[in-house]
Structures are given as C-alpha cells and as structure tokens.
Amino acid sequence: MTKEKFGEKITFMPDATRGAVRFLTSNQLKETGTKNVVVNTLHLLISPGPDKIEELGGIHEFMNWHEGYMLSDSGGFQVFSLLHSKEWEGKIDRDGATFKSPREGKIYTLTPESSIEIQMKLGTDILVALDDCRDAQIERKEAEESVHRTLEWAQRALAHFEKLGGRKQGKLISCVVQGANYLDLREYCAKELSKMNFDGYNFGGYVVNDKGKLVLEEMKVVIQNTPKGKFKYAMGVGKPQDIIEAAKLGYTVFDTVLVTRNARHGTLYSFDKEDYMLRIKNARYSSDLAPIDSSCDCEACKNHSRAYIHHMIRIGEATGMTLATIHNLMFYQRLVEKLNRV
RNA sequence: GCAAGGGUGGUGGAGUGGUCAAACACAUCAGACUGUAAAUCUGACGCCUUCGGGCUUCACAGGUUCAAAUCCUGUCCCUUGCA
C-alpha cells in the first residue's frame, strides 16, 4: 500500500461509522475510488467492542480495508447527538460522558483517555481527541464552556496518546476546534490548540447555520489561527458546493454522511445538473433512459438508466440503494479529483 | 327465491345523527437530510380561494330532522348461509 501523506491533497472519506459504509462491500467501496474512510469510536465501542476488534487484528483487517488511511472519530459528536434523542439517557461532565444505551441498557463512559484507548485498540491511523460538541445556536456562556472543556480534553487526550505510544507507532492525532459561531472563541480555541502538538486541526460543531449555509467565516478564522503544514479537516462537510468552498479556504480533509444517506433517500449527484443534484424519485425520471450522470462510469451509470434506479429506490430495493451509494461516492471522488487538479 | 351482512376519497379501511372533507395505513406529488439515533423524517393529497374562507361529496333516488356518511323507504350491485 503506497499512501500519500494524509491531508496533503484533498481527500473525501466516506463514513463507515459502524465499520461499514452502509450498503457497500469493501470491494464495492474500493471501486468508487475511495482510499480513506472514517469509523466511529462510540459506535464501535458499543458493538462489536474495541477488544473484539483488536483481537481480530484491528479495523483494517476486520473490514479488509487496505486502500488507505482509517480515521476514527472520537465519539464527541455522538455524545452530543445521542443525548438529544429521547431514547438515550446520559450526562456530560468535566471528566467525560456517561450514557445508557437503550438497546442493551448498558452504561458506557467516554473520557478523553478512554476514547484514545479505544481508538488505539481499533487500530486506526488517525485519531481524534474527544471534544465537547454543542448545538449550533448556543449562548456565549455555553460556547465558552464547550471551548474550555474541549481544550482540557485535548490536552488529556494528547497525553494519553503519547503514553500509549501512538506517536511511536506512526499514528496521527487531531483535535477539534469548537467555539460555535463566536469568532473570537473560535480564534482562542484554535490558538490554544495550536500550542499543543497535534497533527491536524478539525473544524467541529455545526458546520452549517440554521439556513443550511456553510459557516465560512468561522471556518476561515480556524484556518488563520492553526499551524500551516498540518492538515485541516472540515468535519461533516458537506454538500458538493460546500466542499468546493471549504477547499478554497484551505481545508483538505472531508467526510459527510450526506453522500451515502442521500443515496439511500434518493438524492443523487450528477455533473449534468447545475446544482449537482438529482432527486431520482421524482416522477420525471420514471422513463428517463439516460444514466444518472453522462460522464460517470460507475456500475450504476454504466449499466442502468435513471428510470431503473428511480424504480429501485421507489420500491425500497436494497440493490438500488447500493447502486445509488456507489454512484454518489464515485461522484464525490471525482469532485475531489477535479479539485486536486486545479 | 329466502335469510343475514355490506356498498365511504386513487386503494385498503375507520366512522353509525352535529366536534366529518371524513381517523389510520398504503399509493401519489413535493421537500429535507452536512464528525449516521436516519432504507429516515416533513408537507400536500375532493374542488375553488384575495388563504379569512367558500363550494360539492360517503352506491343511486326520495324522505324524516334545526342538522344525515350515519335514521326511514325504494332501486341497483356485492358477499355469505339456506333452498
């Protein structure tokens, strides 16, 4: 496996949150041109568990994914998002998060240290320090608390990473910049994190405002206040246009669930469309014999018409979702390829 | 032929005197989804509307009533049981 330095070129990483890009085999994923993927610490902690994955040879081996890097997200976002769901109970304090899974009723804790420990056991190449993620629209006081906690946790995560020998093993570790939409807090958080020895800086929190617009000002501040030569990861970004915009600012690492989730829900991407979007379930595609994208040679476009994909997605056929996912991922990889050529 | 039960919007199916343009589901037509709680969710779905409302509907035709999808009479269909 010949890997280029992570984040040197623009990369889009699909989310294989639970150790699988939904509806795709690793081989199908490979055919989309994907190299790097993201997995999630919290989800893999719950099932099948870090010890199990370690015992089975690590996540690369487990998924049989050797095309590129694997990045593990810390679980910070899940702590935030799962606690918003009615089914999950839990609390976050200075030390970390504790919560109860509604499925098995088991109680899990995630601290800066345990998150790193789990990620080490997973055997990913790039780790993320646990952060304190909050809602998009929050009071300044809450944003301050989130920043302070994130800084403290970053320090602890980094120390634990060193202690467990992550650096020696050639792994990379990144941190998350919080601060909501307060530019000075974003700046402060970025500057403080820059004093620590991280390999990458991630833009965290909500990346779009209430109108669905990318928070470019905040993202710019973070770029301006973090060290050059270290990768910049726009977590959860985004729509094709958002990636183009964020890449202009200097972000090179991206992941989003949109690409795969939209595929399942019937929003496909196509360079034939001005806004890159094609809602395949719409009645107008019921007898459209053209491929989803005339310039794409993915399995769906090479072999099937829009009409056929339209039908498959409408009836909820899993194979249709697979084809749509393959197509959308291929689109994103082609988009990134275009951006790297510029 | 007799007996019993039925006929409700694109479909299935609630409703059995007013709160009914009619539950709910499906289908249909749109939309959303941004470090995956998501093969999910939201809206529209008789007709018209200046979005306040207005109008026409529950097999068909009459009738009772202030008021009927709901009660009564007749007609036409359907299902089941008995001949």
TrEMBL record:
Keywords: Glycosyltransferase, Transferase, tRNA processing
Molecular function terms from GO: tRNA-guanosine(34) queuine transglycosylase activity
UniProt xrefs under InterPro entries: ArchSynthase1/Queuine_TRR (IPR050076), TGT (IPR004803), TGT-like_sf (IPR036511), tRNA_ribo_trans-like (IPR002616)
Keyword Transport among record annotations: no
Protein known as: Queuine tRNA-ribosyltransferase
GO cellular component, one term: cytoplasm
Organism annotation: candidate division WS6 bacterium GW2011_GWF2_39_15
Pfam families, sorted: TGT
